[in-house]
Amino acid sequence: MSNEAYHAAKKDLSSTDPMKRFVSAVYFANNIHTDMNKELEACRRSERVRHIKLALDKALHRLSNSAPVASVEIDQSGEGEQPEQLKRHLKNQAIDEFSGVILHELAPKLGMLDNCLKREFDSYESSQAKNHVERLTQIFGAIESLRKSTHKPENKENDLSQLVKNIAYEEVGEKTDINISLEGLQPCIINSDPDLLTLALSNAIRNSCESLLLLEDVEYKTLTISWGTSDKDSWICVIDNGIGFRGDPKAAFRIGNTSKQGHTGFGMGIMQQAMENIGGYAELSAIETGGAKLLLRWGNF
Length: 301
Hints:
- By secondary structure, this protein is an alpha+beta fold.
- The chain folds into 3 domains: 3-67, no CATH class; 84-148, no CATH class; 156-299, Histidine kinase-like ATPase, C-terminal domain (Heat Shock Protein 90, 2-Layer Sandwich).
- It contains 9 helices and 7 strands; from the N terminus they run H-H-H-H-H-H-E-H-E-E-H-E-E-H-E-E.
- The strands form 2 sheets. A 5-stranded mixed β-sheet has the order 2-4-5-7-6. The chain has a two-stranded antiparallel ribbon with strand order 1-3.
- A hairpin with a 5-residue loop joins strand 6 and strand 7.
- The longest helix is centred in the middle third of the chain and has 37 residues, at 84-120.
- It is globular.
């Protein structure tokens, strides 16, 4: 990209014309300029247009993934607070390094423990020890998914409608008492990272299924998945009539936060991390008549 394009985009970030701000934000989402982190942060704080915010989020996320910590300048004017770019970088780095060590050092030992218990105890298959080993295996699987959610996105053209169908039928499987409804444009061609979208949507649908299966004495359990796209952004909405949730929706995305027995508490956090990595977000809300609505939205840049 030319120096002229850079200066034009920099100037248009503060334009009163939303279209100019959007084109400028998309430029910085697609072209990394490490000197722009403070200005992009300031624009993101003041921006009110949704698709422009998504483009700025992606620009800042790419900056956080591309620049080493040493090169990220901390803004001292924010009363000691670190800029979002640095926070994202540190978060991704911490997740990747911590999960990598845990999986490398402990996961193989868990497999060895499982094999030893099978050989040394005749009643292992019906024991509590087996339940605990399976629980740990489940947690290690969640940690691996969390690590994948921090990977750099690789955009490619794919059919969102087919992606949704494949994940929905795989996750719902033989749960025949759940009535699934799919509503959206077919085909729905987008340019995004299918692996990160799969990670996010798989956890979203799995969470809804778990909520539905906890319902008692309810004949009609419904799961509705809709999707769509425009020239600016794409979205997937997952609605169920399950047990819903209580409290602050944002708290549901904290890793380890769960009220479901046998649940790792990683699913919502993995979903949010994967969406942030493609420059989007996950939003959870309660439905007055019962159940929950989960929205995944990301920009087409």
